[in-house]
Structures are given as C-alpha cells and as structure tokens.
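During the no-cost extension, the postdoctoral fellow (Dr. R.K.) reprocessed legacy sequence entries with the updated structure-token encoder. One reprocessed record is reproduced below for audit purposes.
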Amino acid sequence: MPRYAQLVMGPAGSGKSTYCSTMLQHCEAMNRSVQVVNLDPAAEHFDYPVMADIRELIQVDDVMEDPSLRFGPNGGLVFCMEYFANNFDWLGESLGHVEDDYILFDCPGQIELYTHLPVMRQLVEQLQQWEFRVCGIFLVDSQFMVESFKFISGVMAALSAMVILEIPQVNIMTKMDLLSPKAKKEIEKYLDPDMYSMMDDNNDNIRSKKFKKLTEAIIGLIDDYSMVRFLPFDRTDEEGINIVLQHIDFSIQYGEDLEFKEPKEVDDEEPGNQNYDEHFQGGGDS
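Re-encoded structure tokens follow.
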C-alpha cells in the first residue's frame, strides 16, 4: 500500500501551521487518520499534536548560540535543514512504516529552501523511496495578493517551488476568513485570473519598457500554460476545506488503492434496516 504526504510550504506568516491544524481537525471529523510532522527548527509553538518534531534533532537557537558557528536566523535555519538532510534516518525512525499513512509536513517559511537549495528536493526523493506519494501545498496570504504585481510575485514563488520539487502542487490562498466582504469580491479575479487583462490594467504604472516587456513575457508563460491557479482557504468554511482536500487527494490518487467492502446483507422487513452505508477500508467513516 502506498503512503501519502503533503509538503506544506509558503512564505513566513502565510498560515502553514494554521492550515495543518485546520486540516487535521477536518480529517478527524471525517474519521480519517492524519498525522503532522513539524519540520521547522525555528518553530515556537503550534496547537496540534505532532508525530515527529525536528527540534528533537536540531534547533535554530542552539545553532545561533554556538560560538563556533555564529549564524544569524536565516543562516542558522539553512544549517539546520542541511543537517536534517544528512540525518534522514531520524525521520525514517520517527515515521515508522504504517500502511496508508497520510502525513502533513509543516515546513519552514524561508523561500530559499524551495528556490535554489537542494534540501527540500532531497526530502521529496527520500519520501518517494519510502513509498510516499507526495503533493506540494504552497500557501500565499490572500491579504498580500490584492494587487496585480504582488499577485505575480506570489505566482513566481509558487512556480519556483514547482520547478525545483517536480511533484504535483496545489496552490492555496489562505486567511480568506480575515478579508472584508469588499476584499473577498476583489480577490476572486485572482483565483482564476486573466493575466493579460491584469497587465492592461497596470500598463500606466510601468515606466520602463524593458520591465514592461519582461512582465509581459512572465504573464504570457503563466497564462498560456495555465501553470499556476489558486484555491481559496477559509478555515471557517468546512465545504471549502473539503474542496481543497479533494484536489489534493486527486493529485496523489488517495483512495484508489483502498479495497472496496461490500455492504452487509440486510433484511428490508426488519425495522431500521431500510438504509445502509457503503464503506471503504482505511478511508472515510468506519
């Protein structure tokens, strides 16, 4: 049986830990077994139980306080993640091997880990060796994406992660519940954007011809190949959360290998036996 994993990525403050907590509660309500692993060595607190915590292996504070290293916060985090990459056996021991595992990996927020450093790519390859089907979840704060140029920056960050990791990726706009009704209406155009119209709306703000040409090329790449789209994530909207989960499950083919169980024979004449549920072993309600 395959195992399943979500790599929850995104800039600092994009809501990765909140996403993990919300998704964990949602899956528990559906009677689905989901675990969370913290991979942020600088994390201070989170409101969900963890299956494994990288801080048991190494912490940023310890690295920064080491007089022989003298790293700052960013350098310390990179050192921690490279140390982690050299000690994947710790993660393997922490995960064990349970069939039909479904694990959320709460990752650090430093963007360089997903753009030009090999650490996260090495993690993906290791998880695949352990028979995990891995999906990248790239989060962007919806409050940041309310202007077209900021939106393009978010798209490029998501695209960078897609290119380096080479795994299915679901891009999500978080904190939709914090937007005003007016902002929610405005941001709808960014969920399924017309990139060329966006460019036309901002032509007057682009003074440099070279910058305008570069922006047009980027927009053309994104729009012509439909490479990046975003799903809204409102932690108070159960139906919306379920739609996000369905997209992720589809991308990693969750449930396709589950064995179908025939419903029990029932006597229609017996009271209370007029209805029955169909069950799937290992998924859904049981």
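The first strand starts at residue 3 and ends at 9. Strands lie at 3-9, 35-38, 52-53, 102-106, 132-141, 169-174, 230-232, 260-261, 279-280. The remaining legacy entries will be reprocessed before the final report is submitted.
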